[in-house]
Structure formats: C-alpha cells, structure tokens
C-alpha cells in the first residue's frame, strides 16, 4: 500500500488495439483502451491513479500510483494483432504493514499490538510461551492482532511481529 505498481503487457508488432480490463475486489470494473487506427485512447470508470505508464502505441504497460486496498483485484491486458489476441493476466494483492505498539497492562503484563495489517500479522515472544492472542477484523479488510504475555520475566521481554511486508520487534520491561 502507498507504493506504485507496474503491470507489464508485452507490446507486439502491428498492434491494432490494446485493452486493460480491471475488476477490483471492491467497486466496479474499469478499462483503459487504445486503438491504433485512430491513435485514440479511452478510459472507463478508472480512477486517476490508474494510467498508461508510457505511450500505449509503443508500450502498453499499466501503472497504479499510490496503491491502496481498493486497487486489489484482477488486471488483464489484451493485445490485438493480425495474428490473434494475446492476454496477460495479473491478480494484484495489496499488503498493508501493521503498526506495532508494545505496552504494559494494569497487571504488569506485556501487550503487543499489530494494528491494521493486511493480511493479519503473526506475533511471537522471545523467552515467553504463555500468551493469549485475539484478532479483530476491520471493514477495510485489515486485521488488528493483540497478544498478551501472561508469564514473563520482570527483566523484560521482546515482541516479534512477522508479516509479508516485513518483520519488526520491540522490547519492554513491565
């Protein structure tokens, strides 16, 4: 999330038409098209963040700026040439790194929170095996994971958060 994503569609000699058909998981479909005989581009229901990266007559690559959860879905490029139609398909999955916090609760137990990640993060503890975890799903598709360590050393402990977007750790003494 937040980065740009580039989806390649191989140009072919003598292209007569190129179409990107996009079906987002949330919201309606959109499309970008190019017709060589009229040197004309067309866009239908696409946000301003979705556009041709270059001139579509030379390179039909698609760029998505500031990728968000709403961009997740199927992207298909169709290139039409005299020899036939060629398709390239992608499924765009958007990763949202969680926000990590670590604090002590009222009983002096370390509580690690990985907030609003997509997919849900995994939480583990260094030198701690007695923990309870719970997950809370949000309307935007993100998940908050909360883990409380119930048997720990008073010298401190470390929470480790694992996620496809990265791994993080924080330490605390309660």
- Pattern of helices and strands: EEEEEEEEEEEEEEE
Report the CATH architecture of the largest domain: Sandwich
Oligomeric state of this protein: single chain
Could you name the CATH topology of the largest domain? Immunoglobulin-like
Helical amount: under 10%
Compute the separation of the termini in Å: 34 Å
Strand-residue fraction?
over 45%
What composes the largest sheet?
5 strands, antiparallel
Describe the structure.
The chain has 174 residues and is an all-beta fold. The protein folds into 2 domains: 5-92, Immunoglobulin-like (Sandwich), CATH 2.60.40; 99-172, Immunoglobulin-like (Sandwich), CATH 2.60.40. 0% of the residues lie in helices and 53% in strands. The protein contains no helices and 15 strands. Strands 4-3-2-7-8 form a 5-stranded antiparallel sheet, with no helix packed on it. The chain has a 4-stranded antiparallel sheet with strand order 9-10-13-12, with no helix packed on it. It starts with a strand and ends with a strand. The mean pLDDT is 91.
At a glance:
With 174 residues, the protein is an all-beta fold. It has strands spanning 5-7, 17-24, 30-35, 40-44, 50-52, 62-64, 73-81, 84-92, 99-104, 110-117, 122-126, 131-137, 143-149, 157-163, 166-172.
Fold blueprint:
Layout (H helix, E strand, L loop, with lengths): L4 E3 L9 E8 L5 E6 L4 E5 L5 E3 L9 E3 L8 E9 L2 E9 L6 E6 L5 E8 L4 E5 L4 E7 L5 E7 L7 E7 L2 E7 L2
Antiparallel strand pairs: 1-6, 2-3, 2-7, 3-4, 5-6, 7-8, 9-10, 10-13, 11-14, 12-13, 14-15
